[in-house]
Amino acid sequence: MKKLLKENSIYLVVLTIAEIIISSICTLAFVYTDTLNYDDSMIFNALGIQKLLQTIYSSSWWALILTILALIAILSVTTLVFKKLEYLFIGICLWVEMFILTLDFNKSPKDLFFSTLLILPIIIINIIVYNKEKEVLNKKTSKK
Predict the structure, then answer these.
(1) Rounded to 5 degrees, what are φ and ψ at 54?
(2) ∠16-18-20 over CA atoms, to 5°?
(3) DSSP line for 58-106
(4) For a Cys-Cys bond, which of 45, 117, 119, 141 suits 99, CB 3.0-4.6 Å?
(5) Measured at the alpha carbon of residue 82, what is the angle toward residues 77 and 83, in degrees to the nearest 5?
(6) ∠ at Cα 49 (118, 26), nearest 5°?
(7) Higher confidence at residue 58 or residue 136?
(8) 84: left (phi over 0), alpha (psi -120 to 50) or beta
């Protein structure tokens, strides 16, 4: 773990852990609510994840959303291991794709506002992490 923190920025490590947790929770929420009726899933109703994903995306988008979240988490881990920013950039592009998928102009402006409020900070955080990791990698290459 010390080697991981020493070779990468702390921001990337925290972001990777957060994206793995988000991907895992969303997948578990889908598996749990898929086997039960939405009314029976008290655990995820209490967390609000199931309702959040149900309102943002229709049920036909579940597989696409879960695949994108898994790819984002995998790309973050790959960035940690191989120390290449291309994977992190692809992850940012996938977050932008998630944002585009949430835009539904047939819904109320309130839903559009909350979708923007949810995903836009994630994209901004990813861009900040990208820049911090770029600084760390540039320092390492200049030392060599």
Answers:
(1) -70, -35
(2) 70
(3) -GGGHHHHHHHHHHHHHHHHHHHHH--HHHHHHHHHHHHHHHHHH--TT
(4) 119
(5) 90
(6) 95
(7) 136
(8) beta
- Spell out the residues 6+ positions from residue 77 whose beta carbon is closer than 8 angstroms to its own: 16, 20
What does R_g of the chain's alpha carbons equal in angstroms? 17
Question: Which tokens in the block code for residue 40?
Answer: 């029976």
What is the rounded CA–CA span in Å between residue 47 and residue 27? 14
User: What residue type is assigned to position 107 of the chain?
Assistant: K
Q: Which of 2-6, 48-52, 82-86 has the highest mean pLDDT?
A: 82-86
Residue 93 has pLDDT above 70, yes or no: yes
Which among 85, 72, 94 has a CA at the least distance from the CA of 21?
A: 72
Count the helices and strands in the chain (H runs, E runs): 7, 0
Closest CA to 115 of 53, 22, 33, 30: 53
Asked if residues 140 and 6 have their Cβ atoms less than 8 Å apart, the reply is no
Taking only the tens place, the pLDDT of each residue in 17-52 is 999 999 999 888 877 766 545 555 555 555 666 666
Q: How far apart are CA 31 and CA 71, in angstroms?
A: 18
